[in-house]
Amino acid sequence: MIEKFFMVYLLKEIAIKKFLTMSEKEPAQTLHQQGYRVTPQRLAILNVIEESDGHLSAMEVYERTRKILPGVTEATIYRNLDFLVDQGLILMAHVGSGKVVYESTRRLHHHLICRKCGASQEIPHTLLTNLFEELSRVSGYQVDTFHVTFFGICSNCQSE
Predict the structure, then answer these.
(1) Where are the alpha helices (DSSP H) in the chain?
(2) Which domains does the chain have, with CATH numbers?
(3) pTM across the whole model
């Protein structure tokens, strides 16, 4: 029993140290400065998302986080994903068919998704910078979330 507790504690400490040595200290500092707890679960989730090459579903985040923190529960993952989205540390994106994915906020980009085959393509944020500026100017809104998903029919499906 004590060995298991020590092993879980050791894994949590490794997760924290690994995350903080990735030169990704800003999220932890942001949480701490805002008066929130910097928990091993939050750090592990941030680590999983930052190390991901793309978008992850909540279940994928859960499965990958369990490798770092074996005792973590699905409910903890969902609760912390919502919290981290609310804090602006990760981004939740709707990518069609009711599917929600999570990704890092460090690399601004958008999505183009085919309604027929579901193919997805990333769009660099720089292509839409003028659109966001014009939207703010015309509407008076201060845009604070930069993520757009466009839906259409890809060239492959158009040629069918």
Answers:
(1) 2-20, 25-33, 40-51, 58-68, 74-86, 129-139, 155-158
(2) 2-102 (1.10.10.10), 108-158 (3.30.1490.190)
(3) 0.67
Q: Which of 97, 120, 98 is nearest to 110 (CA)?
A: 120
- Strands 149-152 and 109-114 come out as parallel
74-86 helix and 40-51 helix, angle to the nearest 10 degrees: 80
CA distance 43 to 18: 9
Axis crossing angle, helix 2-20 with helix 58-68, rounded to the nearest 10: 110
Q: Which among 78, 8, 91 has a CA at the least distance from the CA of 42? A: 78
Question: Tens of pLDDT along the chain (160 residues)?
Answer: 444 444 444 444 444 444 344 334 577 888 888 888 989 999 999 999 988 877 899 999 999 999 999 999 999 999 999 999 988 888 888 776 678 889 887 777 788 888 899 888 888 888 888 888 888 889 998 877 667 888 899 999 999 8
Residue with the two structure tokens 């703010």:
136
Smallest CA-to-CA distance from 95 within 149, 54, 155 is with: 149
Q: Which two tokens stand for residue 43?
A: 């750090």
CA nearest to 150, candidates 121, 113, 117, 107 = 113
